[in-house]
Write a structure and sequence with these properties.
alpha+beta; Diaminopimelate Epimerase, Chain A, domain 1; 2 domains; 18-stranded mixed sheet; 5 helices; 42% strand
């Protein structure tokens, strides 16, 4: 079978987008196996994950994402921007604001266009942050975990647990460049207190309006950016008095503008999405 695909990236977080509204791809090969095959940077196209365009009965469209290790993620902030840009510019969805069915619930991206009707950036209503430990899930005797002590091996870390439809462990550090992201991130991802594993964000506070972030993503490892992680980090910084309700989050792949609207309790994320190339691959 030959597959037409689109390779896109959001701040260096890269994805293979596949249109399977007719279901033919899934009939031929299951999505987890396909993700591992296509995302291999040596034997496939290479990406952090695959994104499926699927039909939805009660939304404009359905979004499903599988990580490079074949695991399914509930949502992806950078991926949803790429998804929205592709749908609009290829006239699959004509309107600028889209109701998307994700495993994390309804997500509403809105494309921002230039004078040639090309997508310049995408603003995404990421919904409400989840702070109750039982819903993240994070095992704790407390209702919420704000800088809660957690032992990882023989070292203690202070974890702020947040879900943006997927779990996050936010850790504030003095200098992100000095953190062993791979070793610590991997250990926290699979920690027994996160029964569904977790993404891990290491945050250096530049000032009340700027955060510097490095991320270890659940199922993908070190990536250049994580949109849901940037949202979770702004929430954690605001809750601990380190930031206000809006901040620019500097990631290795670029910057995201994050705003927590306290009136609606919704998080809004604005950033770019870029086409890398398209092609066809035999599987």
């Amino acid at each position: 079978m030959e597959l037409d695909f689109i390779k896109m990236e959001g701040l260096g977080n890269d994805f293979i987008i596949l249109d399977d509204r007719d279901g033919k791809i899934e009939q031929y090969k299951n999505y987890p196996a396909l993700a591992k095959r296509l995302c291999s940077r040596h034997f496939g196209i290479g990406a952090d994950g695959i994104i499926l365009i699927l039909d939805s009965l009660d939304h404009d469209i359905k979004f499903r994402i599988y990580n490079s290790d074949g695991s399914q993620a509930q949502m992806c902030g950078n991926g949803i921007r790429c998804f929205a840009k592709y749908l609009y510019e290829n006239k699959i969805i004509p309107q600028k604001k889209i109701r998307v069915d994700t495993k994390a619930g309804t997500v509403i991206p809105e494309v921002i266009t230039d004078d040639k009707d090309q997508v310049r950036s995408v603003r995404v209503d990421m919904g409400e942050p989840v702070l109750f430990c039982r819903d993240i899930p994070f095992e704790s005797q407390n209702e919420t975990a704000i800088e809660e002590r957690m032992m990882v091996g023989d070292k203690e870390y202070r974890i702020t647990a947040v879900s943006m439809g997927n779990p996050h462990a936010v850790i504030f550090v003095d200098d992100v460049e000095k953190v062993d992201i791979k070793r610590i991130g991997r250990s926290i991802e699979i920690h027994e207190r996160f029964p569904e594993k977790t993404n891990v964000e290491f945050i250096e506070v530049v000032n009340s309006g700027e955060l510097k972030m490095k991320v270890w993503e659940r199922g993908a490892g070190i990536t250049l950016a994580c949109g849901t992680g940037a949202c979770a980090s702004l929430v954690a910084a605001s809750l601990t008095g380190r930031a206000q309700e809006s901040a620019i989050v500097h990631l290795d792949g670029g910057d995201l503008d994050i705003h927590w609207d306290k009136d609606t309790n919704h998080i809004f994320k604005t950033g770019p999405a870029t086409l890398v190339f398209d092609g066809r691959i035999r599987i």
